[in-house]
Amino acid sequence: MANPALRQAFEQKKFIVAPGIFDMISAKVADGMGFDCLYGTGFGTVASHLGVADAGIATYADMVARMGQMARGVKTPMIADADTGYGGLLNVRHTVMGYEAAGISGIQLEDQETPKKCGHTPGRRVIPAEEMVLKIKVAAEARTSPDFLIVARTDARTTLGLEEAIRRGLMFGDAGADIVFIESPESEEEMRAIGRAIAKPLLANMVEGGRTPILPAETLKQIGYAIAIYPAVGFLAVAAALERVYGHLKQQGDSIALGESYGFKRMTELMGFPEVWEFEKRWAQPDAAE
Description:
Helix content: 40-55%
Pfam family, one: PEP_mutase
GO molecular function: oxo-acid-lyase activity
Oligomer: single chain
Number of domains: 1
Strand content: 5-15%
CATH superfamily: Phosphoenolpyruvate-binding domains
Order of helices and strands: HEHEHHEHEHEHHEHEHEHHH
CATH topology: TIM Barrel
Distance between the termini: 49 Å
Organism: Neoroseomonas lacus
Shape: globular
Transmembrane segments: 223-242
Radius of gyration: 21 Å
Largest sheet: 8 strands, parallel, barrel
Strand order of the largest sheet: 1-2-3-4-5-6-7-8
Keywords: Membrane, Transmembrane, Transmembrane helix
């Protein structure tokens, strides 16, 4: 069931910063940091689960299982990437129903052709706007709770230009999307133009090394955005840390002098070992030999 706190945050005009999560460790760490929302990144989830490019290879079954596992493992509301809805209108309905039943609080659907490509990468093509409008209407009808939010994304900016992207954003909002996501605007001025044109809550995708400039949260709020997602910041940091420690291990043959790490004790606490130990203590059987 969707967490009503997320819709309430938008209704209260609270600017939301949502870190990208991609596995259960990242989900657990982020869940304890006090964020209002977590973002299940498609790129990171596909990479951590399948080890392949986010290029339409992952299926609905792959993603609903992985995203649902993260959503059930945290208390913070979660928005999850669902690509194109994994097919036509019937697929979109099934995807919305599945994501909502999995405990996710918001679904992101995009207007790319199938197979889709990762945002901020070249070669993305979009379906006709009218087809995406139908997908959004089906999504809105399929949800069982108004607390389950629909994020409608357009990738039209890169191939068709900003004007077409804004036109689609307006159409998607009118069709029933709760949040409009114009992917990969290429300057702050373009982001300001989007903010002036679209009254619906807007999502900014802050990707390190991507096409869109990374702006401070206060600036994003001031120019009309309601939420900023940081899908890549977690898995980029993890990859860099692993490269460093694995490189040291390969060169030195030990893990000495690597500096401070997260700590094994903290990790056992994060994963719930103290509760397991307490359970075992309460239910321990007397030694048969005694």
